Structure to design on (479 residues):
């Protein structure tokens, strides 16, 4: 079985969110099941060429885009984890400060950029004589390749099927129709049933109509996107494909996220010795954020993009009351919306010793926070899968989440009678629901310590290895 992944991000080369983690981990897991996987991503200018020992292997490769000929170079890395990764170097599109936007706003030519990436990736497979059984596509950026496969533009791919994984239907890649010709979308395929949406090109919508199979990253999200709200307007089109739609929960790359082997944390630990390990990491975390160093006060944490999806606007109005009313500490790590950055950036000054924040992206801190906190807050408005609640479980940190999407599939509600469960869930999109659920966690921390211990054991016992999910993908590939 040959599988070609085409994606816009892959950890550790280029990452803006969980998509990059999945594009790195799933090929590795498939490889261990005997699948031959090659991954193609752009060579963004931010990728550290020497650090990853990239080598130029195909100078002057060429692909036709509409009436243009585009010439690009292909680079390759030394097969990390046994998976071949190819990088498309094309200055005009990828030599920019961001992947999709920069301080000047969104890149308006991304339909050009990513249709080119998709075509170039297929050309690379052809030049390498790597005939894929499956081309596995991710989100709006590469969804259009499903169309290229379906249209049989190239007989080399006549035996190839396309798989589109929906990591986030909130982002659809909507661009001016001026890109139609370049992206090689025929006028008669530019209809409301396929690529067209209100006169614009909707890349994700096109991918959904042409992909042979569609997967998404949790069973609950697979149901949610059949509805109007979850699908962000695409429910009619996703419903048409419901027989080809499957929800497969993401896994966790335990070579990166594992408290027993984690290089970023001062004290490694496992489920047996978690108390000592967490205590040491908690003290290190408190020092790092200038919080009062004490093992007896619960730490709540948030890590993520400051975007509407993550529900930080639910936390914003209550975080000061929480710090006033409850004996707890709070740490926030992330960036995004400037007004939220300002607000959370000022939090430590509001409650010195109890509140810490870091505005920006910091992988090391993310590990320390997971290892040293007691609770992890994810009040997401929607969450296709979510990775941090799974990292939290593995690190013995109990999630406080809205019960939607992948959060619903991974977090089991705390049962106050017997201490069952592995986290705290609430339903309503409201600050008060979040406030009371955090209060519930705080009171459980102080009043029902045996339940907390039981939940931590439950959490750490969960198996999040990618193997199970990769097996599900493999059986779908074979269908
Ligand atoms: P999404 O892809 O929607 O952003 P996920 O939960 O799937 O959400 O994945 C987010 C990933 O990005 C996680 O690995 C998380 O730890 C990481 N992450 C997000 N923001 C930051 C940050 N500021 N610093 C470090 N890691 C971050
Ligand atoms: C998206 C989703 C997130 C998911 C990730 C990886 O960015 O927002 O919930 O975990 O993709 O699939």
């Amino acid at each position: 079985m040959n599988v070609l992944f085409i994606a816009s991000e892959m950890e550790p080369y280029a990452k803006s969110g969980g998509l990059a983690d999945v594009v790195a981990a799933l090929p590795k897991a498939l490889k261990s099941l005997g699948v031959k996987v090659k991954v193609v991503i752009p060579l963004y200018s931010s990728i550290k060429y020497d650090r990853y020992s990239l080598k130029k292997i195909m100078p002057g490769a060429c692909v036709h885009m509409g009436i243009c000929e585009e010439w690009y170079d292909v680079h390759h890395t030394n097969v990390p984890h046994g998976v071949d990764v190819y990088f498309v170097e094309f200055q005009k599109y990828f030599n920019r400060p961001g992947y999709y936007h920069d301080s000047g706003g969104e890149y308006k030519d991304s339909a050009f950029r990513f249709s080119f990436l998709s075509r170039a990736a297929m050309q690379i497979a052809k030049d390498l004589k790597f005939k894929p059984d499956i081309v596995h596509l991710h989100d709006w950026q590469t969804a259009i390749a499903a169309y290229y496969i379906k249209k049989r533009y190239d007989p080399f791919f006549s035996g190839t099927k396309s798989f589109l994984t929906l990591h986030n239907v909130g982002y659809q890649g909507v661009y001016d129709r001026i890109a139609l010709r370049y992206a090689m979308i025929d006028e008669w395929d530019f209809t409301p049933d396929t690529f067209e949406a209100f006169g614009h090109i909707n890349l994700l919508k096109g991918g959904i109509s042409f992909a042979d199979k569609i997967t998404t990253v949790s069973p609950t999200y697979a149901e949610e996107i059949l509805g109007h709200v979850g699908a962000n307007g695409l429910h009619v089109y996703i419903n048409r494909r419901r027989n080809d739609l499957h929800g497969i929960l993401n896994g966790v790359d335990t070579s990166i996220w594992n408290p027993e082997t984690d290089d970023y944390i001062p004290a490694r630990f496992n489920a047996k010795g978690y108390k000592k390990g967490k205590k040491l990491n908690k003290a290190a975390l408190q020092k790092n954020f200038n919080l009062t160093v004490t093992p007896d006060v619960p730490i709540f944490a948030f890590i993520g993009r400051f975007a509407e999806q993550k529900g930080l606007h639910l936390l914003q109005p209550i975080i000061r009351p929480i710090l006033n009313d409850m004996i707890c500490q709070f740490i926030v790590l992330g960036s995004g919306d400037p007004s939220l950055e300002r607000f959370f950036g000022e939090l430590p000054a509001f409650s010195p010793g109890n509140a810490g924040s870091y505005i920006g992206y910091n992988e090391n801190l993310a590990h320390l926070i997971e290892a040293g906190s007691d609770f992890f807050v994810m009040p997401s408005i929607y969450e296709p899968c979510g990775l941090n609640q799974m990292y939290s479980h593995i690190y013995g940190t109990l999630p406080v989440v809205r019960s939607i999407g992948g959060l619903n599939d991974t977090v089991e509600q705390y049962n106050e009678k017997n201490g069952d469960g592995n986290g705290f869930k609430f339903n309503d999109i409201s600050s008060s629901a979040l406030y009371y659920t955090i209060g519930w966690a705080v009171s459980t921390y102080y009043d029902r310590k045996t339940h907390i211990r039981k939940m931590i054991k439950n959490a750490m016992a969960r198996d999040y290895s990618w193997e199970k999910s990769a097996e599900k993908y493999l059986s779908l590939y074979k269908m």
The pocket of adenosine-5'-diphosphate (ligand 1) is lined by residues 17-19, 21, 303-305, 333-335, 361-363, 366, 385-388 (CB under 6 Å). Residues 2-251+467-477 form a domain with the Rossmann fold fold (CATH 3.40.50.2000).
